[in-house]
Task: structure prediction
Amino acid sequence: MAAAQLGLLAASAVLFLPMGLARWHLSRTKMLFFTSLLFISLFVGVHLAPYFHILFSSVFFPSPPHYHSQSLLSPSSCLTFLHRISWTEETPTPAWSWSASPAQSCGFQSLSSSDASVLLNGSWVLVAGDSQARLLVLSLLRLLLDSTTLASIEPDLFKRHSDYHISLADRAIKIDFLWAPFEQNITEILTRQIEPVKPYPDVLVLGSGLWHMLHVTNSSQYGNSLREIKNSILSLHSPMTLMPHMFWLGLPRLVNSKLSTEQKKERMNHETCEKYMRETREAKLLRRHGGPLMLLDVELLSQGCGARCTEDGMHYHNAVYDSILQIMLNALVIESQQRI
Result:
């Protein structure tokens, strides 16, 4: 609209200004000079008019600086680099760190207790699964709480085959752990406890498979159960409801020689693990395969830490679950576009 008005003004000037100059008895040469100069100036002005507001605002109203570490890559690209970590053998505990290049490009950082409290302030975190999921909850509480408080609640968290609930009132953070060793347990939680509740949890972490591998040992049935979980998650979608940030806690690398019973060594072997991993891919539960859940790749991280990090062949050193937690928290920073 502004460009059209300016064009009309320019046309009027080109038409009537030479007539005005003639009244001053200027020579034909001078009139042609002034008319040509006017025409060129107006031509340039009309074509630059759409950009005047950009130039004006950039000079007089520059954008404020962004103090959060900027990612040089797109958020989706950074998510794919979150699991690129390396392990170093240190005494008395193993240590991990992100590979330098993606960490620098994407701004990955190990969140402190205060950072995590800011990120999760006012959030409901629900974790449902087996002992691996319970250890992830322990890692989260270890980050958020002081050692004295953690020591007082740890016995309740590790009551055998039980749920655990805690609210951190000073930060308005609610954390629920639901014991769900079988995939059917997770499906029931989704359909009976989460779907009827509005709003949904802000963060939802699910994971199972070890009990199925030990007590059922049927990879095809496991795959079908994962498809039921996926369908239950998809049924949560509603145009009026905000969906949670959703994660799948993968199976760990099993060290067969360290498994505690002969039954575990027989049933939870490398070949069976491969079949269960394949069913997870084919069920399209994970985001990388077109599904709804982002994978927290416990298998990759536990393999990186190595056999030295496990005593019973399936549960690993705290450092492994701490790395999983930091990957999840950094994914939340990326997806929610928060500044820490």
